[in-house]
Amino acid sequence: xxxxxxxxxxxxxxxxVAGNQKALxxxxxxxxxxxxxxxYWIVKDADVSKDIAQDSWxxxxxxxxxxxxxxxxxxxxxxxxxxxxxxxxxxxxxxxQKRDDYKVxxxxxxxxxxxTSQVKQQLKEAITKLSVxxxxxxxLFYVYEHSLKDIAQILNISVGxxxxxxxxxxxxxxxxxKK
Length: 179
Fold this sequence. Notes:
Layout: H1 2-5, H2 9-17, H3 21-43, H4 46-63, H5 73-91, H6 94-109, H7 116-128, H8 132-143, H9 148-155, H10 159-178
């Protein structure tokens, strides 16, 4: 079992494409929770994020043989999860999103802000007020600790655009937290 933990993602992809079903099981075990968490940060619904991760796995399994650089599996797969999450957010109505935002804002406003947990809550609220692209950048950079280069590949944007979005997200957060 310890030997399997040291197998790279690229090796597992190559083994799965060659017919080793156990390699896929290891990939799923390694990445399913990461995919759920990534989807959750975008859709803000645990059940939907699990569905998105499951749908993403179906597409990943169907298309894994087309992956030309198996060592890039993580970024490739995260891009699939990311796109499916964005597709879902586009499908929901704007009215529902406004209602949810109102409920969160109202409940946050009722909490006095004096201790560290409340500061964290204020930061979370400020992040939810960012645009979707800014929220994604903040999440990938600070939560998953991806480099700007990796973020650019995951989001299919230039590194300069990733830097710009991160800068503007930080500035927006500063403004919101000073209020």
